[in-house]
Amino acid sequence: MPSLLTASAAALSLAVLAGCGSTNSDSAGQSPEPTERQTAETAGPAERIALTYDGGVMVLDAESHKVLGTFEAEGFTRLNAAGDNRHLFLTEGDAFRLLDMGTWSEPHGDHSHSYTTDPLLTDQRIEGSHPGHLVNHDGTSVAFFDGTGEIHSFDPAELSADAPIKTEKAQAKEAHHGVAVVRADGSMIHTVGDEDTRSGVVIRDAEGTDVAENSDCPGVHGEAAVKDGVITVGCENGLLIIKGDEITKVDSPDEHGRIGNQRGHEDSPVVLGDYKTDPEAEVERPTRVTLTDTTSGKLTLVDLPAAYSFRSLGRGAEGEALVHGTDGTLRVIDPESGTIGTEIPVTGEWEEPEDWQQPQPTVHVSGDHVYVTEPAAKKLHLVDLAAGKVTASIDLPEVPGEIAAASGEVSVGADAHGHDGDHGHDHDHGDGHDHDHGHDHDHDHEHDGHNH
Predict the structure, then answer these.
(1) Phi and psi at residue 411, in whole multiples of 5°?
(2) Is the keyword DNA repair assigned to this protein (predicted)?
(3) In the prediction, which pLDDT does 97 show?
């Protein structure tokens, strides 16, 4: 990843748009209108980090660690990658609300130009009953609403703080806590079931016709993408591997072996998953993870010296499997052999809370950057996997909940264009490493009448 420089350190001021006053957001959540924000050019992509807390969301500069803006938000909020390296979605009430992180890059021939502006929690929303998973694959982002089974797909390249979000709507057969993926050929994979029983997945072609279905996946939950566009979803007794229009079941070695949360990597055929074996446990604290080779279908269990939670999993830039244990150690696992390699002390000891919505250490990977939150200490740690150590520990003004990042890099598939002098628009596209595909919305507990 290119060196990250802040706008103030790197920048050439490009344009102050009409009516521009103070552009800094304040602690009460006040912020300028989209058209009032100043744009500056930076020396390279400027990664920014979003962290939720009780009552709002804050945006930090990844290089200076400065809080660039704080915004009020109601209720329990979640963060979702929008799919364009610039925007995130905040799950707020019955909507996904667009959060402009204010960092992006545009291709220009054999190079690119990078820009920043003030972050902004916009008024643009995708509305529906009980928003659940929002995922991005192959240049299309898809929001699933658990309360109705409504599926909204959209092009993240068209997101803007100034314009309503245009989506194409589809409908699952029944309402349930589900997820949907749109692939490059226009086909869609989505889960099936009702609000009481989730049973598997269906594949629809670009015209909406069902072409394949598998119902041998009780409690279907979560998704991940691995090499060659292969998709996996978790089951209470294994997982499903979806290649093209073929769906293959991989059984767990235990009668109940739930793999509800997975992390994939675009250059690896192996998916990392959690593993729970006690269907009666209120809070199960597992000490094994799964590594499933989607080429051979072989599932390997890896024993760990400490427990972990659903927020503990990640994939490094080279596809390494990452697990942050309750002993405070981040373990780097070879996805092919299952061998535990580097062990990096990161946080103090911790225990998964009984209420999954309560803050707990969370791993988030963005390109070469590995972040781990430590709510008990109000800190955010940056881990260097190659060096095997924590390289920065950031003191936070609030107890962190969820975390996501916007890299500000040129999105995959962005078209090169000539300089036209207008860089004040919202025009970057393709949130990326959430090629740590597989999202932290994969936990199955009730809240406000629906599951996560």
Answers:
(1) -80, 155
(2) no
(3) 97
DSSP state of 230: -
d(CA 109, CA 417): 7
pLDDT value at residue 283: 86
- 403 phi and psi, to 5 degrees? -140, 140
For 221-248, write each residue's pLDDT tens digit: 989 999 999 999 999 999 999 999 999 9
**7 burial level (CB within 10 Å; 0-12, 13-18, 19+):** buried
User: Is 155 within 8 Å of 163 (Cβ atoms)?
Assistant: no
- Residues of the chain by 3-state class (helix, strand, coil), percent to 5: 5, 45, 50
In 396-449, at which residue ranges do the beta strands (DSSP E only) sit? 403-406, 446-447
CA gap 265, 228 in Å, rounded = 10
| Helix or strand holding residue 7 (H, E) | helix 7-10
The contacts of residue 138 (CB under 8 Å, 6+ apart) are: 182, 183, 184, 229
Collapse the DSSP code of 136 into the 3-class scheme (helix H, G, I; strand E, B; otherwise coil) and give the result: strand
DSSP SS3 for 307 = coil
Contact 434, 452 (CB under 8 A): no
What is the CB neighbour count within 10 angstroms for residue 248? Answer: 13
DSSP single-letter state for residue 8: H
**Helix, strand or coil for residue 377?**
helix
| Type of residue at 408 | G
Q: Which two tokens stand for residue 166?
A: 């245009």
State the CB neighbour count (10 A cutoff) for residue 95: 17
25, 33 Cβ separation under 8 angstroms:
no
- The Cα 79–Cα 440 span in angstroms is 9
DSSP letter, residue 282: S
